[in-house]
Amino acid sequence: MLTKEQATPRAAIAPQAEPLQPYWWRLSASLLALLLAGLYFAWRFDLLPAWMTGQQQARPFRKAARAIRQQGKQAHGLQESMRILSRAFNDYAGKAVTPEGLQAFFQRHPELQSLQSDISQFYAATQQVFFAGNSNAMQQPEVARLARQLSLLETP
Fold this sequence. Notes:
It is built from eight helices and no strands. The protein is mostly helical. It starts with a helix and ends with a helix.
């Protein structure tokens, strides 16, 4: 059983005000970190326009990856994507790159050695698509993936 003293309600205690400044600092720091992370990933995955990155001219593979991504799934998307990527190889090398000249291309550009098999497969597929009419030699997502990997290799 409760005594009369225990059963009577007590007077309400006014809450003490907590300073909000530490919470504002934490919120500001978190938002700044989120903004910086967003900008980094936008730069890393080539989502920023060229004028924001300080580049006068976009690098050929980054430009090609962007154009292929915008190409999407159009009727002649595979052929156009292959053309875009072939032109990017030509711009990167400073001259026309052909399947016969791939070994010399890799000797001049050793930074692309890691993708040598994919690039060789791409050039074999371009021969099949453009000259033999075989549109099953390579799919659009494979071309887009190769362009993306090449653009990431261009990124410092």
